[in-house]
Automatic annotation (TrEMBL), chain A:
InterPro entries: MFS_trans_sf (IPR036259), Spore_V_AC (IPR014203), SpoVA (IPR005562)
Pfam families noted in UniProt: SpoVAC_SpoVAEB
Protein name: Stage V sporulation protein AC
Source organism: Thermoflavimicrobium dichotomicum
Keyword Transmembrane: yes
Stored NCBIfam families: spore_V_AC
Parts of the chain that traverse the membrane: 33-57, 69-86, 93-113, 133-153
Gene3D superfamilies referenced in this protein's UniProt entry, alphabetically: MFS general substrate transporter like domains
Alphabetic keyword roster: Membrane, Transmembrane, Transmembrane helix
TrEMBL record, chain B:
Gene3D superfamilies assigned to the protein according to its UniProt record, in alphabetical order: Stage V sporulation protein AD
Organism: Thermoflavimicrobium dichotomicum
InterPro entries cross-referenced by the UniProt entry: SpoVAD, SpoVAD_sf, Thiolase-like
Protein name as it appears in the record: Stage V sporulation protein AD
GO molecular function: acyltransferase activity
Coiled coil: none
Span of the signal peptide: none
Pfam family, one: SpoVAD
Amino acid sequence: MSDKKKKKLTPIQQQYQDFVQKREPKRPVIKNCIYAFLVGGTICLIGQAISAFYIHFFHFDEKSAGDPTVATLVFISVLMTGLGVYDHIAQKAGAGTIIPVTGFANAMASAAIEHRCEGYVLGVGGNMFKLAGSVIVFGVFSAFVIALVKVIVTKYLGGF
Amino acid sequence: MIQGRTWIFKNKPTIISSSAVGGPFEAQGPLAHDFDLLHGDLWIGQDSFEKAEKKLQEDACEQAIHKADLQKEDIQFFLSGDLMNQVISSSFTARTLGIPFLGIFGACSTSMEGLALGSLLIDGGYAKRVLAATSSHNAAAEKQYRYPTEYGSQKPPTAQWTVTGAGAVVIADEGTGLKVTAATIGRVIDMGISDPFNMGAAMAPAAVDTIQTHFRDLHLSASDYDLVVTGDLGRVGFQTANDLLEKQGLRFPKGRFYDCGLMIYNLDEQPVLSGGSGAGCSACVTFGHIFNRMRKGELRKILVVATGALLSPISYQQKESIPCIAHAVAIESEEGA
């Protein structure tokens, strides 16, 4: 908890928070990092293999192989979400399954499945971007800011 | 009669029947044989989790009425609550039952809120037979309070697992069964915890306050109950409550203080992190397992302290801390009455 938040607590509340903190099991950060590294790395390795597969058998070049590779990974992720496996892997893997494109696919698919019972329009359509929406909003916004920075640096400062 | 914050039921309302219904995950737990009905499928044959929860509660009510050898027309009031928005599981169950209905909300403390209020109606002579119930459903609760069930987020070790289950009791002014002797109504306590993945720690002070008040109001000592059981504090909350009570000088004899959230699952094998939670947790464990033990004569006098975290997903997003409550009900088996 941030210090700013702590300041609002009464002394008794503060005392209790310190009391209870001693009894809370800590998030196993190092273990989580190792799992995230291994699982995330494995997903990337699979992606690399798929990419090599497309280059070798379907004559894509290294740049254009990216699109079918992402599509394949997204498909696998959505399938695993539908089969109810993805969330179990994610409980162990943490950031390892959230960061790659598979995590984004899972966020959309899980929300779509969850709200299927409220109908296709208001349920699936309206809720599909419940979690993924913020990724898109801030993704687009940060891309915009980066683009501005790039333009300023290259045009007016002469670039590097 | 009231003594401090505690109601003492002079006429000792009788729990003439009780029932517990669970889901597939509860069936793998150590208390499986104490359930009246266990569903093998999380959907319970319905097309949404919300409808599944309603079905659970209907099943529990049906079982309780059936076990008491009554028809639903014999029940005068139905008190129920659950975790869903606008307590839909309970209202829809009441629609099915057609019994005069009072909807209640105490989050996970609803089981004892219902039992206490039901006993009050009976003891005051305002009803002859009351049905009190509550339910929770893991996936429905996840959907409402957290993320979609299939979303791959990592939960911290302090998080708890919402029980898929429902419990119901029929309380009557006469008959044989367990007797409700007293109830202490809780105050809302907020110790500034705002992490919804650490509700045990948020609820522990509420449980401690209610337990202390109950013992003070009735001038009891720690060894007066065969079992004092909290609702769903989980590992962290229970340890905290235990330490707080010891600090205040209430030290229970070994094995006489426990938590329903730690009993319902096999904590080492099932991935429930800190333990079970949800309105169904205290209901299933007490109305099923503990009442069965009392009927067998293993326990004579118990105190159930159901704890509830009164947050909503919106209050949490608006950075509010979690206000909590605990209601305690004392129950005795008949030979002790």
